[in-house]
Amino acid sequence: MKVVVFCKSVPDTETRVRLKDNRLDKSEIKYILNPYDEYAVEEAVRMKEGGKAEEVIAISMGPERAKEALRSALAIGADRGILIKDDALDGSDTYVTAKVLVKALEKDGLEYGMLLFGQQAIDGDTWHVPGQVAEMLGLPQTGSIIKLEVDPDGGKAVANRMVEGGEEVHEMALPCVVTCRKGLNEPRYPSLPNIMKAKKKPIQEYSVSDLGFSAEDVGKAGALTEVLSYALPPQKEAGKKVEGEPEEVAQALLQYLKEEIKVI
Amino acid sequence: MSIWVIADHRKGGLRKPALEALSEGKRLADQMGTAMEAVIAGHNVEGLCNEIASYGAEKVYVIEHELLTNYNPPAYARVIGDLIKERQPQIVLMGGTMTGRDLMPRIAARVGAGLAPDCIKLEIVDGKLKAIRPAIAGKVRVEIGFKSEIQMATLRPNVFEKLEPDTSKTADIEKVPFEPTDLDTKQKLLEFLSKETGRPELTEAETIVSGGRGMKGPENFALIEELADLLGAAVGASRAAVDAGWRPQSDQVGQTGKTVTPNLYVAVGISGAIQHLAGMSSSKHIVAINKDPDAPIFNVADFGVVGDLFKVVPLVTEGVKKAKAQEG
Ligand SMILES: Cc1cc2nc3c(=O)[nH]c(=O)nc-3n(C[C@H](O)[C@H](O)[C@H](O)COP(=O)(O)OP(=O)(O)OC[C@H]3O[C@@H](n4cnc5c(N)ncnc54)[C@H](O)[C@@H]3O)c2cc1C
Ligand SMILES: Nc1ncnc2c1ncn2[C@@H]1O[C@H](COP(=O)(O)O)[C@@H](O)[C@H]1O
């Protein structure tokens, strides 16, 4: 069976966020493959190495730089990439993104057994796209998984999903959707030869019109939500800091807990 | 036109984030001069309607079926989504529990509605919902507006104020039929592996005591646990402590762990890396105990203690014990 991993190019957390004209100033941002998607790629590649998947396809919607995210996935071990790139996509919300990704899968004529996503993209932190894609395709879905067992011959998968107070163990018929998170596996560091090999792996590009959309269907025009404004979070005032003998500082903290927080 | 709240429940009770969502739904409904109504799906859940009513819901749609006993994403999304399409509430809210964050995107896609996740503030502007939420690891706040008729949002737990319930209130109950389809049976819950610790859930806790690499080893987390238990707190950890195998994955706070908003967050032996801050910097009060006066955690701490945690924490624990004994 073929498996598809969804890869987003996102700003590295370490980069500073600046605003310009009520938009994000993207000029100095460094982009990486979304860390949650690394767990998805790693899991897919392990499925291939374990003989459970024939082909791993990495797909991304984004500007030219999203190719780098795809290359990272190819370096971990995905076989080929699909990139949906078009200026008209600027301003797309998660609904549009899901719609476009679904069309790209159809266009590619993929007979996939599993769709693997990251639990969330660390820029928007929405957790939306996987569920939206699953619903549009009418597929079962287990989110936030930390364990996965796939039985391609039996046509099913069992996944443990991390929730408050424990784990839900879901059984799903294939094809199905999972979203991956930390705890599922330990993504490998790609070796230099694999990074070189990744450069030669094919990446198919699609434009919006290739997928049968017009400009009004996507981007800002097709979105159901819009970002009205950006603001930096309120700056916290510098707090109190105490230094000294353990007895003194412990006393000061106890007083704070008692008088300010009133927990004791 | 009305405001709907999808009520998340567990073990025969409403979840705390569901109560917060009901409270916020009621506040917005009052502001708009409309009714707040609730949806509950599950098996044997009608008994929860009284509690839902006590938070101001005028009507409760009850969807009961054996197939809905446990969370089943396709089935829940189909039945709730189709009900929304039929009745056209203007706004649909749900607490941002693991179920809420998982389910609402499916429903939104089915309905064709815009969805704002993990909101920390909701407003009605010109008759429409406007949502405020953190993004990019909490480094920006964005305002989300809606272009769809139906507007949906999930609420970050522990942020919205919970109303005092009024048990004299009642609600109309409408039972919604559930006809299983093929898709509903393509997924089922095999079992729930409980990992209860007896402590509050991190995302819902009023107080959290977290330990990092400074704890030096798993055995020293006894110091954290003792203080946490005295304060009725949850126990958290930095990624370094989790990756070292000292604490379970479910304890991790931060970008690749949980986002928490307690009233009090106590960071012990945690440096305050940006990825850790991403998960806890919106806590209402932050206390840090760290021996390095330049640790970045002090930039966000309301009260910082520069000192050796192995000396300071036991003294604090003793002090709390004494104070509790005096109260008691
Ligand atoms: C993609 C990505 C995602 C990440 N996600 C997360 C996440 O979700 N959550 C998270 O926490 N991290 C995350 N990290 C890791 C993060 O960058 C830091 O490495 C981590 O938070 C450090 O943990 P720490 O503060 O416990 O350890 P350290 O940075 O080693 O800090 C230990 C602190 O303990 C203090 N200390 C030591 N001994 C004592 C003593 N006796 N008394 C008092 N203080 C003492 C030291 O001064 C130091 O400040 C992520 C990193 C990446 C790259
Ligand atoms: N533009 C995109 N291209 C490919 N995959 C995406 C894109 N946006 C989101 N995803 C996938 O959906 C997951 C959740 O993202 P989000 O819903 O944005 O939090 C990500 O981890 C990716 O697997």
For this structure, the CATH topology of the largest domain in chain B is: Rossmann fold
Q: What is the CATH architecture annotation of chain A? A: 3-Layer(aba) Sandwich
Characterize the overall form of chain A. Answer: globular
How many DSSP H or I helices of chain B?
Answer: 9
Our count of domains of chain B comes out at 2
Strand-pairing-aware structural class of chain A: alpha/beta
Level of helix content of chain B? 25-40%
| Total of DSSP H or I helical runs spanning 4+ residues of chain A | 7
Describe the 3D structure:
With 264 residues, chain A is α/β, with parallel strands linked by helices. Chain A has a single domain (2-222), classed as Rossmann fold, CATH 3.40.50.620. Helix content of chain A is 30%, strand content 31%. Chain A contains seven helices and 15 strands. In chain A, the strands form three sheets. In chain A, strands 11-10-9-12-8-1-6-7-13 form a nine-stranded mixed sheet, with helices on both faces. Chain A has a two-stranded antiparallel sheet with strand order 2-5. In chain A, helix 2 packs across helix 5 (192-200) and helix 3 (94-107) packs across helix 4 (129-137). The longest helix of chain A has 16 residues, at 246-261. Chain B has 328 residues and is an alpha/beta fold. In chain B, the strands form four sheets. In chain B, strands 7-11-6-1-4-5-12 form a seven-stranded parallel sheet, with helices on both faces. In chain B, strands 15-14-16-17-18 form a five-stranded parallel sheet. In chain B, strands 8-9-10 form a three-stranded antiparallel sheet. In chain B, strand 9 (128-135) and strand 10 (140-146) form a beta hairpin. The longest helix of chain B has 19 residues, at 309-327. The radius of gyration of chain B is 21 Å and the shape is elongated. In chain B, 57% of the residues are buried. At the A-B interface, helix 3, helix 4, strand 9, strand 10 and strand 11 of A face helix 3, helix 4, strand 7, strand 9 and strand 10 of B. Bound molecules: flavin-adenine dinucleotide (FAD) and adenosine monophosphate. Flavin-adenine dinucleotide (FAD) binds next to helix 6, helix 7, strand 17 and helix 9 of chain B.
